[in-house]
Amino acid sequence: MKNIKNKVKAIIFDMDGTIIKTEEIWINAIKQVLTTRNITTITESQKKMFDDSAGMGLTPGLQLLKDEFNLPESVYDLVHETKMSAIAQFNKGVSFITGFEDFHKKLREHFIPTSIATNAD
Question: Quick count: other Cβ atoms within 10 Å of Cβ 29?
C-alpha cells in the first residue's frame, strides 16, 4: 500500500457495482415496471439487448425498453417509476461489494483520498 501512495494521488470509485451491489435492485425495478404492464416474459434476444445496455444509464436503457415493448408512457415517466421502485429497495438496505470496505479502510489509513462517481440518473 505504501508503494501505491507514492504513485496515486487519489482514487475515484464508480458507485453502482463497484462499491455497492445494485445490479439486482435495478433489475428488479425494471421487472416491476414491466410486470405492471403485464409483460412477464422476455425473449432471449430481448434479454441480451437489455444485458448489453447495462452501464449506458437509466434513461437510454428505458428508451430501449419503451421502444421494444411499444410502451405509451414517456421515457421520463418510466424513469420516474423505475426510480421509485429502486428507492423502495434501496431503503431496505444495500450491501458493499465484497472486499470494498477493507480496501477503503486501508486507503484511509494511508491518507489516500477517495471519491465516488456515477453515471446514475
Answer: 21
| Residue 114, H or E segment | strand 114-117
Grid coordinates of 66: 419503451
**Amino acid (one-letter) located at 12:** I
Instruction: Give the chain's largest Cα–Cα span.
Output: 56
pLDDT in tens, 7-66: 888 999 988 888 988 888 888 898 899 999 999 888 898 888 877 777 778 899 899 989
φ, ψ for residue 117, nearest 5 deg: -125, 155
Side-chain-facing half-sphere of 52: CA atoms under 13 Å: 8
Q: Which helix (H) or strand (E) holds 4?
A: helix 2-7
Q: Length of the chain in residues, anyone?
A: 121
Quickly list H helices, 9-74. Answer: 23-35, 44-52, 58-69
With a threshold of 0.90, does the pTM exceed it?
Answer: no
